């Protein structure tokens, strides 16, 4: 019996040795662009820090943190500092100079593996991902003051389907997302959607929009989950060692390139200082890693094909859209018919308030989404404080969509400059009361008619609110490319 156990242990050890030799040591190195010096730097085995091609080694001064740096695959550069976030979200490491320290007050969430990191206004975000047995389409933001991650609430009913491996990039105030890997029938198996939609999130108003079907080759889409990406001059590049693409949103074009087979490793860094691609590769003799650098222009060459960004819409898609609309109407009807009995009275009251008025008001509060102005009888509201207008504008951006009342907490917190939850809640309730009072007086309507309330369908403990559409009018937003 002891001999059998010994043989099993030897076999396991040999298996690990062979597995390690497949790509030896490459995961023990972290490659990044120093946010302050704009030099390529390499961290080896969480202990040594190099500049350039393994030159000028210094000892890394570090804190204690879960696992090794190889488990921190989300990289950010903000304010001249580099940040590495755990692959499941939660833990945040800050790298500056020769130090690496943990700055969060969180824990390994295990909730957003294979998510898509992005930066906006010096803030770190994660979109979508997989964890705790479910795919996500959420966006989370790291709060540097609190040291915690928070959910970003969407103010639109439409949003990309839950998935992982989404390709994302930020241009201006917009986040673009496409080509996520989606679950099959809610299970763990995944597939790519037949119609690969290009989505756009307005990071100011938190509203998603489906721009259409992106015109990527199916064969390329199937392979692209592992591609590296970055933005240069407003163009989004997906880099591969066979075919690479450049997505030009401004000119609505996609350019295809035949690129060199350089056996790119999982981490490629673009250096805008000298316009080069940098990645680690394995040398031919001792198989130790080396830094490989090549100019982006040389790597890409000239495009061999250019296509329109989006596929042309087909008439069948309009029919399908109508069918989806009917399903949504039927689903909404079913929801109201089969609401929980304990909420029946509140539902009836809400529906009564939401029902179109027999005699619509002559004047309503008008919201110009393009300018952000709130008007009454052609003039901007003057009897509201800046904070009241900010909350009202937030509710107007989510016009027609119920929002958790807790989503107002961030607005209040930024105004009060406090993290005291009691102070935030008191101020929030006071704001809601003042807004309802002023609008009811202005429009000569009942106090309870201004805001509609209900319990969340996902968590009955959460109260949701939205403005009563009978008393508000939205001007259409001007299209922006």
TrEMBL record:
Stretches that traverse the bilayer: 318-338
Keywords: Membrane, Transmembrane, Transmembrane helix
Origin: domain of life: Bacteria
This protein's record includes keyword Transmembrane helix: yes
Name of the protein described by the UniProt record: Uncharacterized protein
Native source organism of the sequence: Planobacterium oryzisoli
